[in-house]
């Protein structure tokens, strides 16, 4: 079939297998263009490995450090005549490339929050890989079925305490409008913490420790975001921010457990705002990203997921010169985003943006092209008019 993008709001309901493979190959090529990681990880578990920051982490480990990787993700498989979600195709591409280099790459598609998927992962690690020296926890999910209670928790993206009104953009239609979001209830806050907080990360680490599958001195990392004040009511001080505070708190506990286990460590890396399936669902943030991309591209400091993670690994986690923490003990790889001159320009442009001047004042074109690339569209060298088989078996 000929596969074209079908965008519905902030999702695209189709994806292109060959475009996704080309997108993955670009990331592999980027990592290979850099020096290999000095003392990088060798056996890596990535939870949330199929798209965004988790995919970039898997690629950086496999191709920057010749690591065996186990990836856990939740994607809709392809069917006859129906494309999969893009992470399915991304994973096939990463796996084929890694195995071609003699690396182990093993995939588990299912609900990472469940006991069953943890059990399957542990079984596969025992059988195929042995203890891991890096665990990346990079889930972004709208819901979680609690493994003990069976309760389905739904995360929300809302302010806390009072309603929040600001500009937002419909990235598909290019319309700038005001959005007002009512504050979250206590139950919504608790539900968001249950989904995006640290409980599940710790359950993973406890299960791996109990199974003797964490190598002494291992690292575990999870990702967070802070961003500028204009997004704080909806992000840092909103429901998702409260969940990220919980992730940080739990991260400190995991750090103590890993320190006790052969001088390991757990840390939070605060990453840059980027176009991913997760971030495109947050009100206001896509407008901020469109402005930010314009400024950072002009400054020559723009990075995507792979550049961020390659820099995180090569200058911080495996950089040799040691980690640089902020006051709260987090690694900051959002440093270029948060530079005062960049943020001063964002603050200058923000109040001026309207539907009419969106294309001049922001990089909405870059946002859209990046969004479509997440689904395998707009990659060079792909003939999008050609018939393509959507049904691809997982490797
Ligand atoms: P993403 O949507 O691209 O990736 C989410 C991953 O989680 C995918 O691999 C998906 O398959 C997997 N997943 C979701 N639910 C799952 C489940 N139940 N079981 C197994 N796998 C599941 O998101 P992303 O933007 O890369 O986000 C990853 C992390 O990075 C999040 O913690 C996010 O808060 C953080 N982060 C993102 C940004 C950003 O701007 N995108 C910035 C800083 C930090």
Report on this model:
With 395 residues, the protein is an alpha/beta fold. The chain has a domain at 7-142 and 190-284 and 301-335: NAD(P)-binding Rossmann-like Domain (Rossmann fold), CATH 3.40.50. It is built from twelve helices and 13 strands. It has helices spanning 17-32, 52-65, 86-100, 115-129, 186-196, 199-210, 239-260, 285-299, 305-317, 340-349, 358-361, 364-374, and strands spanning 7-8, 11-12, 43-47, 68-73, 105-109, 132-137, 143-145, 152-154, 164-170, 175-181, 214-224, 265-270, 331-332. Strand 4 (68-73), helix 3 (86-100) and strand 5 form a beta-alpha-beta unit. The longest helix is centred in the middle third of the chain and has 22 residues, at 239-260. The radius of gyration is 20 Å and the shape is globular. It binds nicotinamide-adenine-dinucleotide. Nicotinamide-adenine-dinucleotide (NAD) binds at residues 48-54, 72-75, 87, 111-113, 138-141, 223-225, 271, 273-274, 276-279.
Number of discrete helical segments = 12
* Helix percentage range: 40-55%
Strand content: 15-25%
CATH topology of the domain at 7-142 and 190-284 and 301-335: Rossmann fold
Question: Could you tell me how far the N terminus lies from the C terminus, measured between alpha carbons in angstroms?
Answer: 22 Å
- Anisotropy-based shape: globular
Bound compounds: nicotinamide-adenine-dinucleotide
Can you list the strand order of the major beta sheet? Answer: 5-4-3-6-11-12-13
Mean pLDDT rating: 96
